[in-house]
């Protein structure tokens, strides 16, 4: 049934391009919205769909060997949600119908690419879907056709190609040692011959590729430019989910399904995680442009996910997946807020803004909630995921790593408070006395995301006992095909 | 054996044509042709996986992207092409010697990395292999081509119009 999550966007693109120009321009938003909502529906109620039998038989005919575990389900939900928010924001920000149409086409293809990454269990197919997502992202970043957008896209292309080459080399070595491209066969080869030079080399190459794609320090060169120069809706998509899927999810999947848990890998993950958390936060603290600040904050937050993964415990893994979910939500919300502020004031420099929450109360309140969740303030969702990761590190004996992670949270709180104080608090600047609250699409997106942050935080005991405890043991297992 | 020799000769000729031709469009077509012949050679060498990678990445994706992008660019004049070829020859004249030297060095050093084990691939019909085993990849490549086409249309064609 899940193969429809890849087929549907593809059919959507075909269908979107069939009718006449006026019809297809009108159709772009609604058709994309329909596909994204169907995806969310599939993930939330996978087996209770009455017509799942019909879909199943068609899926079998297409013979796509997709597999779904709890990690995939979390990611599929995040992809659907962030794509939904992106569509609302783009509808608000698009200058004309043609721009919306172009955006919808590429978004659907990127959606198919991301769903494919999450669903495949074959390293070469993974590479193919990574490429779909990467090429789609280059196009989306440069949609504005401004100089800075081309610069951002160019940096992304170059570093992404480097990552791709490293990954392809690793895939070549995987095939050499395992004779197959399936995760299962490669994982078996890794387990049987862990210390062979070629296997270590392949592991190093693939890890480097993942680190570049995830934008972790010191492989982050492309990320601030790409996030800051992309159009508002694309920044949300990139920061909210694309980097998480192509970099972080791929890393998690190969560590869990192929590399297995070994001490050298743990040291590498801890090192990269800590460097990203600390230096990402310090760099965010020094930014004057709030989109760049959010970009560096992303690097820092992804560091926490890597630490959770590196703890190699069930609790740490569950914490990492939960933080990945939370990060997708609060970072999307912060980028929606930044889009609202930029569209109303025309600037991204924090020094030239102040007191905006008087004129934009919804944007102000939701951005405070997102910032506090990112900083790990209880009882919001971000607090619980960070707590799980830090507990996992503490109980598995990596006390110093846990201490650094806690201390870096203070840095996170510092740069978000600076952002809030400069942009939303204080007296409003005379230039912005007449501005209005953000448009309907942006407000709806902000409210939905803020409600999730509060809901997940307050209902944490329920979510923990019903969802999170089942995450890690099920990774690698199958709950659907 | 005769077929192999024929294929290898065509491979060398196609790759020479790719490097030597003056038009970049023909060069891109030559690259695709080289990849296709290499794919056949790999299938005959009983390596369907490697052949599949070569066919999908080089012959399929890259060629289409190259050709569609080149078709939207302004071609060089004949004089410019000749000038550039001279620079290329001057820059790369030692490359063949270096390559032969490196090959000889590796041959005499007898470097063989330790490969722990290798599941021998069975020879299967190319159609069976592509359709039964790598169906997702074929579908994925159709998607890549679609993204590439949209990229070219949105970013290049509309700019050219402007």
Strand content of chain A: under 5%
Shape summary of chain A: globular
Structural class of chain B: mainly alpha
Radius of gyration of chain A: 21 Å
Helix amount of chain B, in percent?
A: over 70%
Helix-strand sequence of chain A: HHHHHHHHHHHHHHHHHHH
The poorly predicted ranges of chain A are: none
Number of helices of chain B: 7
What's the overall average pLDDT of chain A, rounded? 83
First-to-last CA distance of chain B: 56 Å
Rg from alpha-carbon coordinates of chain B: 20 Å
How many strands appear in the DSSP assignment of chain A?
A: 0
End-to-end distance of chain A, in Å?
6 Å
Number of helices of chain A: 19
As a percent range, the share of helical residues of chain A equals: over 70%
Number of strands of chain B: 0
Order of helices and strands of chain B: HHHHHHH
| Tally of domains of chain B | 2
Structural class of chain A: mainly alpha
* Biggest beta-sheet profile of chain A: none
Strand portion of chain B, in percent? under 5%
């Amino acid at each position: 049934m899940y193969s429809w999550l890849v087929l549907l966007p593809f059919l959507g693109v075909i269908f979107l391009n069939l009718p006449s120009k006026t019809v297809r321009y009108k159709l772009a938003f609604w058709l994309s919205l329909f596909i994204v909502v169907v995806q969310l529906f599939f993930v939330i109620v996978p087996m209770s769909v009455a017509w799942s039998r019909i879909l199943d038989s068609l899926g079998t005919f297409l013979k796509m060997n997709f597999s779904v575990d709890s990690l995939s389900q979390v990611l599929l939900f995040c992809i659907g949600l962030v794509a939904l928010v992106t569509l609302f924001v783009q509808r608000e920000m698009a200058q004309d119908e043609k721009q919306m149409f172009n955006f919808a086409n590429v978004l659907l293809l990127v959606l198919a690419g991301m769903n494919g990454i999450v669903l495949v269990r074959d390293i070469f197919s993974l590479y193919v879907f990574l490429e779909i997502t990467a090429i789609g992202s280059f196009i989306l970043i440069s949609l504005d056709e401004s100089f800075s957008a081309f610069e951002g896209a160019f940096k992304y292309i170059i570093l992404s190609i480097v990552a791709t080459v490293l990954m392809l080399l690793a895939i070549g070595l995987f095939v050499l040692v395992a004779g197959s491209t399936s995760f299962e066969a490669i994982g078996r080869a890794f387990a049987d011959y862990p210390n062979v030079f070629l296997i270590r080399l392949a592991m190093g190459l693939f890890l480097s590729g993942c680190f570049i794609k995830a934008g972790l320090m010191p492989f982050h060169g492309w990320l601030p430019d790409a996030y800051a120069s992309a159009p508002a809706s694309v920044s949300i998509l990139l920061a909210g989910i694309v980097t998480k899927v192509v970099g972080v999810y791929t890393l998690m999947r190969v560590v869990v399904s192929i590399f297995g848990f070994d001490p050298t890998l743990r040291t590498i993950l801890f090192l990269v995680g800590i460097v990203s958390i600390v230096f990402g936060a310090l760099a965010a603290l020094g930014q004057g442009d709030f989109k760049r600040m959010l970009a560096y904050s992303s690097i820092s937050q992804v560091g926490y996910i890597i630490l959770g993964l590196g703890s190699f415990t069930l609790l740490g893994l569950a914490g990492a997946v939960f933080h990945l979910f939370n990060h997708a939500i609060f970072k999307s919300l912060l980028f929606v807020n930044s889009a609202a502020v930029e569209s109303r004031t025309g600037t991204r420099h924090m020094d030239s803004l102040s007191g905006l929450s008087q004129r934009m109360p919804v944007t102000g309140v939701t951005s405070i909630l997102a910032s506090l969740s990112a900083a790990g303030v209880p009882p919001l969702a971000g607090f619980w995921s960070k707590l799980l990761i830090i507990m996992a590190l503490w109980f598995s004996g990596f006390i110093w790593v846990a201490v650094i992670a806690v201390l870096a949270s203070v840095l996170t709180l510092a740069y978000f408070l600076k952002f809030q104080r400069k942009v939303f608090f204080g007296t409003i600047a005379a230039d912005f006395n007449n501005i209005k609250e953000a448009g309907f699409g942006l407000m709806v997106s902000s409210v939905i995301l803020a409600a999730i942050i509060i809901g997940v935080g307050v209902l944490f005991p329920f979510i923990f006992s019903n969802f999170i405890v089942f995450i890690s043991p099920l990774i690698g297992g199958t709950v659907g095909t | 054996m005769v077929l192999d020799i024929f294929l290898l000769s065509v491979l060398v000729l196609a790759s020479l044509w790719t490097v030597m031709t003056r038009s970049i469009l023909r060069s891109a077509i030559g690259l695709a042709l080289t990849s296709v012949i290499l794919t056949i050679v790999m299938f005959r060498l009983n390596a369907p996986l490697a052949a599949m990678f070569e066919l999908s990445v080089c012959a399929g994706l890259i060629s289409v992207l190259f050709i569609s992008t080149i078709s939207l660019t302004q071609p060089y004049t004949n004089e410019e092409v000749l000038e550039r070829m001279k620079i290329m020859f001057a820059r790369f004249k030692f490359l063949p010697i270096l390559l032969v030297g490196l090959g000889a060095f590796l041959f005499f050093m007898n470097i063989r990395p330790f490969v722990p084990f290798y599941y021998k691939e069975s020879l299967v019909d190319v159609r069976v292999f592509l359709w039964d085993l790598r169906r997702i990849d074929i579908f994925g490549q159709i998607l890549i081509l679609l993204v590439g086409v949209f990229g070219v249309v949105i970013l290049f064609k509309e700019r050219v119009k402007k």
